[in-house]
Amino acid sequence: MNRSIFLIFMGWNFLSMAQSYAPPAGHTGSTAIHMDSLIFTSWASGIEVYRGFVFIEDTTFQANGSSLATFGSPSFALGKATGNPSDVVSLGDSGLAILTFDNPITNGPGFDFAVFENSFSDDYLEFAFVEVSSDGERFVRFPNHSEVQSQVQIHGFGLTDTRRIHNLAGKYRAGYGTPFDLEDLKDSTSININAITHVKLVDVIGSIGMHATYDSHGNKINDPYSSPYESGGFDLDGVGVIHKELNIPQITTDKVSFFPNPAQHQLHLRQPSESCREFIIYSLEGKKVQTFETCETEKEVLLKLPNGMYYITYELSGIIERKPLIISNQF
Q: Which of 92, 178, 188, 221 could lock 233 by a disulfide, CB 3.0 to 4.6 Å apart?
C-alpha cells in the first residue's frame, strides 16, 4: 500500500475508533444541555474556591504576580451560566470549588444537574472531576473515563475529541453544560442521592508526567498542559440543577398524567375536565420540538420524535409544570 494512502487510512481508522461516548453539542446523540434550557430549575447559590498553582511543576512560578490562579471572582460561578468566557472563576492546577444550593439536588429521571465551563470550541477542552456530598464532609466522585492517548502530552492549546471523555466536567463548549446522573452513585453508602447539598469540582491537571491524575479505570487523563497563566486550569461558569428537593408545599401534578412512559409513537394524556391547555415538548437542549393543545379530558397524542429524553411542560393552577418524557421505540 502506498505510504500516503496508508497514513490516511490509519488516520481515518484512528478517528473512527474515537466514538465511545457522546459527541459535541449540536451533534446527534450529544448530551450537552444549553444554559437557556427550561429543564433547569435552579442554580448554585454558594461557593468556596481553593485556587491551585498556575504551574504545579514549579510552585514558585508566578503569573500576574501570583503562583496561584487568580482569574475571575468565585461569585462569577453563582447563578445562571452566561457562556461568557470572562465570566468564570479559574481553579488552577488541581484547584477546587465547592458549591451549595438553596435546595438539595435529588435523583430524578435522567440527568440531575449540569456543570458549565468556558471552552471556546468543541475540542479545546479542560476537565474537572465531579464529586457530591449530602453533608459537606463526605464526598463521592462520579465514575469517569478518558480514552485519550497518554503517550504524547497535549500541549497548552492542544485539542481533544470529546467522544473519548465520559463523566468529566468540561466535556462541552461554553454555553453547554455537561450533565450528571445521581443514579450512577446509587450504591454509594456515604451519601444520600436524594439529598445532595454540595457539588465539588476538582481540576484535572492534565499532565501525563509526575503530576498525572487518573480516571476511574486507572488511565492518565491527558488534557492541555501546561497552562501557566492566571486563568489556568478548569474555568467554572456555573452549575445548573435539574431535579431539586422542594421545601414548600408542592401543587400535585397527578391531575395531569401521561402514559406510557417510556412511550413509542403515541402518548395517552389525561387531564381535569373542562380544562384547555397547551403542552410543549422540549429537547434536553431546550429546543421546542412538538406542541399540541387540547380541551379533552383524555387524548391520544401522536409523537413524531426520535428516541431520547425530553421534557413536557404545561400550566396547572398558575404554575408551569414539567415532567420527563422518554421516547423509546425499542421496548
A: 92
